[in-house]
Amino acid sequence: MTVPAGFPQIPPPQAARHSVSDTRHGITRSDDYAWLRADNWQDVFRDPSLLAPEIRRHLDAENAYQTALMSDTAALRKALFAEMKGRIKEDDSSVPMKDGPFAYGSSFRLGGEQPRYFRTPRDGGEETILLDGDAEASGAAYFRLGGIDHSPDHQRLLWAFDDKGSEFYTLRVRDLATGQDSKVEVKDTGGGGVWNAGSDGFFYTRLDSNHRPSKVFYHSLAETAGSDRLVFEETDPGFFVNVSGTRNNDWILISISDHETSEYRILSTANLGGEPKLVAARETGLQYDIEEGGDVFFILTNADGAKDFKIMTAPAADPVRANWKELVPHEPGRLILSVLGFKDFVVRLERKDGLPRIVVRDRASGEEHSISFDEEAYSLGLSGSYEYDTETIRFSYSSMTTPAQLYDYDMRTRERTLLKTQEVPSGHDPDLYVTRRLMAPAGDGETVPVSLLYRKDTPLDGAAPCLLYGYGSYGITIPASFNTNCLSLVDRGFVYAIAHVRGGKDKGYAWYEDGKREHKQNTFTDFIAAARHLVAENFTAHDRIVAQGGSAGGMLMGAIANMAPHAFGAIIAEVPFVDVLTTMLDDTLPLTPPEWPEWGNPIASEADYRTIAAYSPYDNVAALDYPPILAQAGLTDPRVTYWEPAKWVAKLRERKTGDNPVLLKINMDAGHAGASGRFSRLEEVAFTYAFALKVTGKAGTA
After folding, report:
1. Same structural domain for residues 571 and 666?
2. N or C: which end of the chain has fewer CB atoms below 10 A?
3. 672 noted as active-site residue
4. Following DSSP, what letter does each residue of 50-79 receive, concatenated?
5. pLDDT digit string, tens, across residues 335-387
6. Given 166, 551, 616, 676, which residue is catalytic?
7. Which residue segment(s) compose the domain that 677 sits in?
C-alpha cells in the first residue's frame, strides 16, 4: 500500500473478518466486523477493563497506527494547544446569579481542569467554595461533573459525577455548613436531581441496564439507601423520562418524550406523596413544554398545526388540554424555541429569518418588545434567573468575531447592563476578521445558510483551505457564536464555515422535518451544496475543504464520503454515528427505541429499513477513492458506541481504491464528549486541527 506524501509508509491494522448474516424483510446483509461489538458492552461501560482482549488489541493497534502517522505533528500540536490555552482566561469566573440571600457562580483556578462552585452574599462579598471539581477529580483518569443544585434553604448541595465516561452518574448530598458529603449516595442516575420545597429530599431519574432513564424516584434525607420511593415509571422503551422543578418551588415536573412526542405529569410540592397528574396524554407528533406562571402554566406547543410553535396558558390547578388558551399565536417562519415565566413578565427566545431574538411580554398589558442585534450572524443565549419574582433576566451574546458578552436586562426599564466580556488573554482584535452569511443553492431550489469566519487579509482566490462544519439532526441548530479554538485555523489562512443544513431548525421547524426520516438525504446534499457554493464563490477549492462533524454530524461525514468523496480534501468524523442500520435494528442499545421517530423503525417497517440502508455510511462503503479520513471515538460512549467507527474504519480500508489513509483515534478513558478536563479537551482539538493542517499542507504554518 502507498501512503500519500506527508504520511509515513506504515501499514494500517487489518481487522479480522468473521462474517455474520442478518435477514430482515427478506433482505440479507453480511457484516464481517460485527465481532468488534463487545457482547458485554453494558459491563464495559461500567468497567472498561472487562473489554475482550482481542477487541482491546485491535483498538490499541489503531491508536498505535494513528500515533505513528501523526508523529510529525507533535510540535504543531504543542503549538496549537498553547495557542488555544492562551486564549482561555485560566482563572476565569462566572458572574454570580442571585438567589435569596446568596449569589451562586463557578470559577476555575490557574491550571485547573474542573470548575469550582462558589457562593457569595447576595450583593457581593467573600466567596465560599461549595465544591472543588479538581479536588473531586484527583486521581481519576476521567471525571465529569453533572448537575449541581443548591437546596431552597441554601443548606445543602446536590451534585453528580461520572468517573467512567459512560454517563452513569452518582448523586451525592453535601452539607454546606461542614463541607462533608452524606454517607448515602445514589448510583446509576441520569446526572442530576431536583430538591423538594422543604429541602429534605430530592427527585431523580435512574438509568436501567440499557442506559435508559425510565424511572423517577424520591429520596428522603431521613431514609437510608435503597429505600427510595418510586414516583413514576415509563414502560415504553421508546420514551425517556426527566424530572425538574420550578423556581417558585410549587411544582415537580416529570417530562416523558421521544423526538416527536411529549407528555408531562406534575406533582404539587404541597402533596409530595400524591400521584403525578397528567397534563395532556401523548399523541404522536404532539409536542409541548410547560413553564411556571404562578396561578397558570405557560405551554409551548405545536398543537393544532402550529409547526413553528405557539404559547398557550392553562390554570395551574387544572392544566389539561381542554383548558389551554392561546397567548402567543403561531406565526409561520417564526420558530419559538423556549419560554420563561416570571411574576410580571413572560419571556421567549425565538428565531426568525435565521437569527435569534429575545421577546419580553408584560403579563398585565400584553405589550411586547424584543432584544436583538445588528450583526449578519450571531448567537443569543437566554440564562433567565434563579428567581421567579424578579424583573431582571440574564442573556449572552456573541458572534463569530465578537467574544461572548453577558448582560443583565431590566424587563421593565429595558436597560441592558454589561456584566462581562469574554477575555482572550493572548489578545483578540475583531477588526482583523470578517463574518459572513451566505445562502448556498440546493438542488431542489432551497437555499442553505452558511456562516463564515476568515481574516480580512485571507486571499479569496480559491486557494484558501476551509474547514466546513455540519450537523443537521434532531432539530439542533449550530449557532454562529464565538469560538476561540477555530482562530488557530483562521489565523493560518483557513476559512471557517458552518453549513446550517436541513435537519436543524435554522430556518424553522420545516427545516428540521425536511432533514429527517424519508427526507434525510437532504441533510447530505445540503452539505455538499454548501461545499460547492464555497468553491463557486472562490472561498476555497474542493481539494482544500476539510469536512468536520460529530455524532449525528459524524454520520453526515460518512454519508458525504460515500456520495461525493472528490468534493472534499479530507474528512474528520468525531464519535460518528455511521452504522445507522445495525444500531436502529438493535433495540437493546440505549438510544435505539427513542431514536426511531428521528430515523425510522427498520424492525417494524420495510420502508424505513430501505430508507436507512440507502444512506447508512457503513452499509454504503464502496470501491471509491476516499479522501484522508480521521475518525475519533470513546470506549465508554453510550450514545455512539465505539464499535461503530471501529467497524467503519475497517471496512473503509478493505474497500477503498486509493492510497489516502484512514485513521482511528479512540480515547480508552472517555465517552461521547471526549476528555473531561477543559485543557485535556484542548489536546484533542489540537490533534484534530493538526490533522486538518497536515492534509492541506499547512502543518508548517507558524
Report:
1. yes
2. C
3. yes
4. GS-HHHHHHHHHHHHHHHHHTGGGHHHHHH
5. 999 999 999 999 999 998 888 999 999 999 999 999 988 888 899 999 989 99
6. 551
7. 53-85+427-579+617-695
